[in-house]
Prior knowledge:
Layout: E1 2-6, E2 13-18, E3 25-31, E4 36-43, E5 50-55, E6 58-64
Antiparallel strand pairs: 1-6, 2-5, 3-4, 3-6
Amino acid sequence: MYYAFFAPSASAWRGEVELRGLKDGTYHVTDYGDGTDLGSVQASAGKAPKLRTEFKDHLLLEVSQ
């Protein structure tokens, strides 16, 4: 699964992004824009996992099981 997030201004954005649409399980998260490993998240029924992050301009994620 791939996700793209964009900052609303030229300054850095900090907070949580919600990774919707994942089935139950553990997922590995990578910023494929720069190859940074962002760890893992746990998805469970009825609750989308959230990832605390900080980025400037954009964040491009690849989420794999």
